[in-house]
Amino acid sequence: MAEKELYDCIIVGAGPGGLQAAIYLGRYNRKVLIIDRGGGRTAHAKHIENVLTQPVISGKEIIRLGKEQAANFGVSIVTGVVTSISKAGGLFEVSTDETKYSGSFVIVSTGGKENIPDIGNIYRFFASSVVTCIDCDGYLFTGRKSLIIGNSIKSANLAMGMREMFSKDMTLVLCTDKLPEDYKEELKDEGIRLVIGRPKLFHGDSTVESLEMQDGTLIPCEMVMSHFGFKLNDKFLAGLGLKKESDNRTYSVNRHFESSLSGLYLTGPLCGHDQVVIAAGEGAIAALDIKKRLLEL
Ligand SMILES: Cc1cc2nc3c(=O)[nH]c(=O)nc-3n(C[C@H](O)[C@H](O)[C@H](O)COP(=O)(O)OP(=O)(O)OC[C@H]3O[C@@H](n4cnc5c(N)ncnc54)[C@H](O)[C@@H]3O)c2cc1C
Predict the structure, then answer these.
(1) Do 7 and 80 fall within a single domain?
(2) Are 94 and 148 members of one domain?
(3) b vs e for 86-109, b when ≥16 Cβ sit within 10 Å of the residue's Cβ?
(4) In angstroms, rounded to a whole number, what is the distance separating the alpha carbons of residues 5 and 178?
(5) How many angstroms does the Cα of residue 132 sit away from the middle of ligand 1?
(6) Do residues 107 and 253 share a domain?
(7) Mutate to test the pocket of ligand 1, among 10, 11, 12, 41 (most ligand atoms within 8 A of CB)
(8) CATH code, domain carrying 14
(9) pLDDT per position in the chain (297 positions), as tens?
(10) Which of 18, 85, 155, 166 could form a disulfide with 11 if both were Cys (CB 3.0 to 4.6 A apart)?
């Protein structure tokens, strides 16, 4: 394994959180390295329309522009999968399979990975007419024949919220029959159709037109919300014993987005916020704090 030079800050993940932090730190003339494995949730978003000054932009374009902007301020970007982080003698060691990197501070903005249900043709429509997040794409359901697929009470709550804000034409498909009777009554009162069963296959050409269930029922739809959440990309943090929130999933951070391990910052979904501008804002806040602490050092 090659030993590499010391960085002021190592950033894991070139999504909006990591790139925004890198742009700030690069503009303080700090020695900054981004390690990124490529892909990521932002890169999968085809149609982002809630970012200030961008009526519509793809996630890929945000990442491309962000990398270019960071590189223009001297930030180094390497491709690699981070497998572990450790801290000794006040310095962090960040490892990929090939290389170890040393840094005074670390920002982790590795986001998450969608849980995609096993439904035929889903990838053909993913991120266009099959989406996963109300804040990102709920608006696209406005006045459309809408379908929500999920497996919990939370999916029923989502259906009621979506009905209020976006579309009265709403069907909820639950893959398991776990819904209490009073919820079923409430859905009925709201005019939301409830189907319990297992989805099989989406039909449609460029956009989805219907969902076929395992029992052969066809449910017409124009927009689909797949509501199965996402896993965090945080395996490599396991050895650090970082404090978590009461949900036992997201990490506890202070107001500068520093974790319970001094000098290690977390942004985006890792600390519970799942939007481009929020992850970017958190990256900026973390970078400002690191600037101050580097001056103190
Ligand atoms: C289909 C879809 C549509 C969306 N639409 C919108 C929208 O319209 N508006 C909005 O605000 N948000 C949207 N989002 C949410 C948005 O993508 C997230 O809020 C955002 O990704 C969070 O940014 P991030 O920087 O934390 O993570 P990400 O964007 O996920 O970036 C994380 C990066 O870290 C890398 N990485 C992960 N693990 C490792 C590792 N071990 N080593 C090295 N690199 C690693 C990944 O490859 C990736 O490049 C959407 C998400 C999806 C999936």
Answers:
(1) yes
(2) no
(3) eeeeeebbbbbeeeebebbbbbbb
(4) 55
(5) 13
(6) yes
(7) 41
(8) 3.50.50.60
(9) 555 689 999 999 999 999 999 999 999 999 999 999 999 999 999 999 999 999 999 999 999 999 999 999 999 999 999 999 999 999 999 999 999 999 999 999 999 999 999 999 999 999 999 999 999 999 999 999 999 999 999 999 999 999 999 999 999 999 988 899 999 999 999 999 999 999 999 999 999 999 999 999 999 999 999 999 999 999 999 999 999 999 999 999 999 999 999 999 999 999 999 999 999 999 999 999 999 999 998
(10) 18
Q: Decide: 275 in ligand 1 pocket, CB within 6 A.
A: yes
| Residue where a domain terminates, one of 192, 227, 262 | 227
Which residue's CA is the closest to the ligand 1 atom numbered 51?
41
- Per-residue pLDDT tens digits for 160-201: 999 999 999 999 999 988 899 999 999 999 999 999 999 999
Q: Decide if 112 contacts 43 (C-beta within 8 A).
A: no
Contact between 151 and 178 under an 8 Å Cβ cutoff? The reply is yes
C-alpha 135 to ligand 1 mean position (Å): 14
pTM for the structure as a whole: 0.96
Whether 125 and 103 map to the same domain: the answer is no
Does the beta carbon of 66 lie inside 6 Å of ligand 1? no
Residues 213 and 78 occupy one common structural domain: no
Q: Is 283 in the pocket of ligand 1 (CB under 6 A)?
A: no
Give me ligand 1 centre to Cα 188, in Å.
36
Does ligand 1 lie within 6 Å of residue 87's CB atom? no
**Which value, to the nearest 10 degrees, does the dihedral of the CA atoms of residues 85, 91, 96, 99 take?**
-160
User: Do both 170 and 220 map to the same domain?
Assistant: yes
* Residue that is last in its domain, among 176, 203, 227: 227
Q: Which domain holds residue 24?
A: 2-113+230-296
